[in-house]
Structures are given as structure tokens and as C-alpha cells.
Amino acid sequence: MKFGVQRMLAVGFAAAVVAVGFVALSTNRHYREEQQNFAWSAQTEEVLAELDAIILGCSMSQSAARGFAITGRQTYLTSYLEAATRLPGRIGRVRELTNSHPLHRRRIGELDRSISALLDYHRQTVQITREQGTAAGRERINSGRGLQLMQEAREVIDAMVLEEQRLKPVRWRAAELGATQAHATAIGLVAVILALLTVCFVLVRHLLATRRLREEALRRFATTLDERVRERTAQLETADAELRRAAAEQKRIEAEVLRVSDYEQQRLGHDLHDGIGQQLTAIELMLYQLATDCGATARQQVERIGQNLRGAIRELRALARGLAPFIVDAGGLQTALSGLVDLASPSVRCRLTCPQSLPPIDPKAAMQLYRIAQEALNNALKHSGATAIEIRLVLVGGDLQLEIADNGRGCVEASTPGPGLGLQIMRYRAGLIGARFTFTSRAGEGVTIDCSLPLSS
């Protein structure tokens, strides 16, 4: 029943819309026809008025030419020139108004020729009077040619006037009939539309009653559902809070582990430098003293042992510097990175590019940048097979940008345990100081690591 009522309602509204559209189209058509008929009627009046003006102009031109020819007075020429100037424009207006009438199109040509001949005759009369005097002018007037031309023009005008007078009542009747038909059509269609709207109103009331019942049922269901949603939302919020607390906690533990790791590295570096390094230095001094007390053969052996020992001391100090770099400001970061480059394998060309001076940065941020460079350099030396590694420290806008690039075989992120774990550590270090970290690599084109640290203004 519900589907049937809705369908009937849709059909009723569609029919009403169609009827309204038909009323609009019909009214518009009748209105255009009515306007056209009334325009034709008004056009008839305008044509008659223009034809009267043409007759008057011809009469004025003839009277003025006759008066000048008889008396020779210049005042007559003013009326003659005014009539001669206006008549072509009025003939053009009649041609424009009657262009759609075949009979008028032929007659307007005849009228144009007649009036042109009449005006030309009057012009010649005026000219002869000026040149030969009033006697010659009166003789030309008495010939009767002007009256003949005037009569020809009047006959054409009278024929056009009769045709327009015949068309005038026909057009008025057509306009009135069109208006009557338009009104009758509009009234009938309005009655149909009112009937359709009445049916639609009844159907709408039925649908509204049905909808109220459905809405009441939906409200009851929505109330129950809302209570369940609130309960479930509360459970989810509790679980989400627990997860968030666990994720802070996890980050805190990770940061603590990283801090302890850095601390242990630094402690180990100091122990190596201050403990074993000092002991090895003391042994080197004892060997030097022993070499002065030995013979030549024994001295050579002691000197070779001393050279090896000095090499071990240099490597130990380099390892200590790597484990515990001295970083307190931007200058310290540059010094530490320079020492890091010195630790690279002799078979790999490693170069550092950095400005002579940098703005101050937080020592903790400098330490994390150094560790990122250290991890990237170690990965490149161990896994990439690179022959050249470049470390760049530059200012880009308001950021301090650290870039480590090699020309090795390249790798996909986390493709092997070593680089994958190292990248995770580097990302984490960058996150601790609010830096942006990017990893770029293609097979055979090496690896580029970019860490960009925003500096405070």
C-alpha cells in the first residue's frame, strides 16, 4: 500500500508539473501571438500616420515650389527644403514597416519612384526660377506636370491606405481572439492543476501519517541504539586511553634505553681513552726507554713493537672519539663529524662539506645528528660496497640539513637486518629532536639519507 501511495503521489506531482509546463508554454505562445497581433495593429496605425505625413510633405513641397516660382520669395524655400529632407526618411520607414506585405513591397517601389520624380521636378522648378526668373517658373508650373506627378504619388498612397484600413480590423479581431483563447486555455489548465494538487494533498496527508508512525518506531530504536553506542564508545575510549598510556610508556622506555646506550658508549669511550689508552701510552714510553738500553738488533725489534703499539693507540683513540665525541655546540658538531670522516676506511673516499660557522644548536640535538651520521656511515662502509661517501651539513632556509650519500649498490629499506635496524634507529633519533628524516635509494645508484632539523628563530 505504501509503495502504491508513493507511486500515485509521484504520478500526480509529475502530471501537475507537466500541466504547469504546458500552461507556461501555451500562455507564452498565446502571449507572443497576442503581442504580434497587437503589434500588427499598432503597425497599421503607424503606417497610416507615415502615409499621411508623406502626403503632407508632398503637398508642402509642391506649395513651396509653386509659391517661389510665382513670387520669387526666399521664404518659400524653407518649407520646400524641410519637406524634401524628411520625405526620403518617411518612405524608408514605411518600407521597413510593410516589408512583410508582398503587395506593399511592390507599391512602396512605385511610391519611391513617384516621389523622387516629384521632388526632382520641384528642384528643377526652383532652379529655373532662380536662373530665368518668375516668368519661366510660372510657365513651368502652368504646364501641369507637377500636378500629374502629385496625382500619381497620391494614387499609390491611397491604395496603400485602403489596404492598411482593410487589414486593421482583421488584425484587431485576431488579437482579441488570441487573447480569448489564451484565457480559456489558462483557466482550463489551472482547473486541472488544482484537481491534481488536491489529489496530491490527500496523498501527502496519508504519507505524513504513515511517516509519523515510522518515525516514532525509529526514535525508539535510535534511543536503544544510542545507549548501546555510548556504552561501546566508553569502552573504546577506555581501551584507547590504555593504549595511549602504553605507547607513552613505550616511547619513554625507548628514549631511556637510547639514553643509557649513549651514556654507556660515552663511558666506554672515556674508559678506553683514560684507562687502556693511558696504559698503552705508558708501555710505549717503557719500550722507548728499553730501546735506548738495548743493542742494535734488539733496538730494531723494540722499535717495530713500538710502531705497532702507536698504531694500536691511534685506533684506540679514534674508537674512543667515535664512542664519546666532544659535542657542545655547532662547532663541536663540525669537529665531531670531521673526526668521524677520519675514521673511514682508507679504501673509501669520504668527504665532509660544511660551512665555517653555524648558528647555535642544542647539544642534545647535535649529539643525535652526530649519531645519525655515524650510523649512516657505518651502514655504508659495511653493506653498500661504496667507493665514495659524502657528508654534507648545510643551512637551507631555517633548517639545518644533514645529508649522507654514497655511490654503492643501493638497497630497499629494511632489506637486510643491518641496514633495516640502523634505519629504524636513525628515524627514532630524528624523531626525538623533531627533525624530518628521509631515505632515498635505487638499485645501483647508492643511498641518500637526509635529516632536516628546524632551527628556532
Would you kindly provide a brief summary of this structure?
The protein is an alpha+beta fold and 457 residues long. Helix content is 79%, strand content 8%. It has a five-stranded mixed sheet, with helices on one face.
Walk me through this protein's architecture:
It is a single chain. The chain is of the alpha+beta class and 457 residues long. 79% of the residues lie in helices and 8% in strands. It has 9 helices and 5 strands; from the N terminus they run H-H-H-H-H-H-H-E-H-E-E-H-E-E. It has helices at residues 2-71, 75-97, 102-132, 134-142, 145-293, 296-323, 330-342, 363-384, 417-432, and strands at 349-353, 388-396, 399-406, 436-441, 447-454. A 5-stranded mixed sheet has the order 1-2-3-5-4, covered by helices on one side. A hairpin with a 2-residue loop joins strand 2 and strand 3. Helix 5 (145-293) packs antiparallel against helix 6 (296-323) and helix 7 (330-342) packs parallel to helix 8. Mean pLDDT is 76; it is low at 414-418.
Task: Describe this protein with a few key phrases.
elongated, alpha+beta
Poorly predicted ranges (pLDDT <50, ≥5 residues)? 414-418
Task: Please give the share of residues in helix.
Answer: over 70%
User: Strand-and-helix sequence, N→C?
Assistant: HHHHHHHEHEEHEE
- Number of helical elements: 9
Which structural class do the helices and strands define? alpha+beta
Based on CA inertia axes, which overall geometry fits? Answer: elongated
N-end to C-end Cα span: 73 Å
Numbering strands along the chain, what is their spatial order in the largest sheet? 1-2-3-5-4
Biggest β-sheet strands, sense, barrel: 5 strands, mixed
Radius of gyration based on Cα positions: 57 Å
- Tell me how many strands there are: 5
Strand content: 5-15%
